[in-house]
């Protein structure tokens, strides 16, 4: 029996996905307007978030629902450590901190792991399927915009242990569908497990959006500096990378 969770998640988060795509920071990123100082803050937030998510997923690897999508080959913690070394240098641990939205994100992951671990599925879905979907395009954009050489600051986008990302996503979706969850709740009032997972995925999209919005302030400041530099001809011709005051 299929839970149809894969399609419930896709349909149920469609609106949130469109909204996330339209956050200024994300739109700018897609257009190649990426500024290293904002980007590395995002990488730092991701480090704390993925570390928490991967630690909590590991705790529940034998859980009948969570265990179905426990794929250590998705883990991003070590790739984020590599990227942080590139962006901050070897003492990156002393320099990074969580933003307020990042902190709320980590707290939520820890909280559900302790109380309703099946909702971790929503967090895994929202981040990893997104990463597997846009990875190579986003990597290319980051490289061009920030003028990164191969192997510089883009380890996050590389899934070394996944050779065919499309096939892997299909397997992930099959496992979502094979989860032992039932639509029916009996009383008609309490949301089903599937409903709660979709609801949590929407919350995960929401908190990702908050995190991107936090970075918009940095980006706007950087754009201001870029415009100033352009007007005073300090900007290198042809460069898409923004020059910021550190
Ligand atoms: C930069 C803007 C974005 C673009 C252009 C984009 C594009 C896409 C595309 C084309 C797919 C479909 C892949 C497929 O059907 O195999 C996809 C799937 C997905 N994206 Fe995004 N995305 C963006 C931002 C995000 C963000 C910010 C998140 C979450 C934080 C996210 C999470 C997801 C998820 C979970 C899926 C899987 C949907 C499913 O098949 O159930 N995306 N994205």
Automatic annotation (TrEMBL):
CDD domains: HemeO
Catalysed conversion reaction: heme b + 3 reduced [NADPH--hemoprotein reductase] + 3 O2 = biliverdin IXalpha + CO + Fe(2+) + 3 oxidized [NADPH--hemoprotein reductase] + 3 H2O + H(+)
Leading EC class: oxidoreductase
Superkingdom classification of source: Bacteria
Entry's EC annotation: 1.14.14.18
UniProt cross-references to InterPro entries, sorted A to Z: Haem_Oase (IPR002051), Haem_Oase-like (IPR016053), Haem_Oase-like_multi-hlx (IPR016084), Haem_oxygenase_CS (IPR018207)
Keywords: Heme, Iron, Metal-binding, Oxidoreductase
Keyword Oxidoreductase belongs to the record: yes
Family that this chain belongs to: Belongs to the heme oxygenase family.
Record-given protein name: heme oxygenase (biliverdin-producing)
Species in which this protein is naturally found: Anabaena lutea FACHB-196
